[in-house]
Design a protein that fits this description.
The chain is mainly alpha-helical. The chain has helices at about 10-15, 20-30, 50-60, 65-80, 85-120, 125-130; strands at about 10, 35-40, 45. The chain has two domains: about 1-85, Orthogonal Bundle (Multidrug-efflux Transporter Regulator, Chain: A, Domain 2); about 85-135. A hairpin with a 5-residue loop joins strand 2 and strand 3. Helix 1 (about 10-15) runs parallel beside helix 3 and helix 3 crosses helix 4. The longest helix has about 35 residues, at about 85-120.
């Protein structure tokens, strides 16, 4: 897969990783991907390890990690030999908690939407004014009691 002994050009690396070349440059700017060497003609040449890094980034994104979180994980992943998995495991636990919270929120939204469909609500304003409206509108703000001087 390499372009001679120097590495992979942007297009080949991007194709192999399933991203576009602009993504490679974006990841470089974000510090997720090391800046590659250059050919005499100025073409980027990435080391073979860059493909692994890109696969790790894409896998972490599919698991819901943000690029900022991935940037924190990559140094750990790159130097894992002989190290504990505790940083990754802890991050995975935190991400799982976030996912579970989002699932709970989505379950509430799903229920409200299904109730809206079942109630035949076709007008948002009319629904908001109906006492049995299933949509989760916020309660009106109540004035706070003023403290006595």
């Amino acid at each position: 897969m390499s372009e001679g002994n120097g590495g992979l050009r942007s297009g080949r690396l991007a194709d192999a990783a399933g991203v576009n070349p602009q993504t490679l440059r974006y990841y470089e700017r974000r510090g997720l991907l090391a800046e590659p060497g250059r050919t005499l003609g100025g073409h980027r040449l990435y080391p073979a390890e860059a493909l692994t890094v890109l696969r790790v980034i894409k896998a972490a994104q599919r698991l819901g990690f943000t690029l900022e979180e991935i940037a924190d994980l990559l140094p750990t992943a790159a130097h894992r030999h002989g190290r504990s998995d505790a940083p990754l495991v802890e991050r995975a636990r935190l991400k799982l908690t976030e996912v579970e919270e989002r699932l709970a929120d989505l379950t509430v939204i799903r229920k409200a939407l299904q109730q809206t469909i079942d109630a035949g609500c076709s007008d948002l304003i009319a629904c908001a004014e109906a006492p049995d409206c299933p949509l989760p509108f916020a309660e009106p703000a109540r004035p706070s009691p003023k403290s006595a001087p």
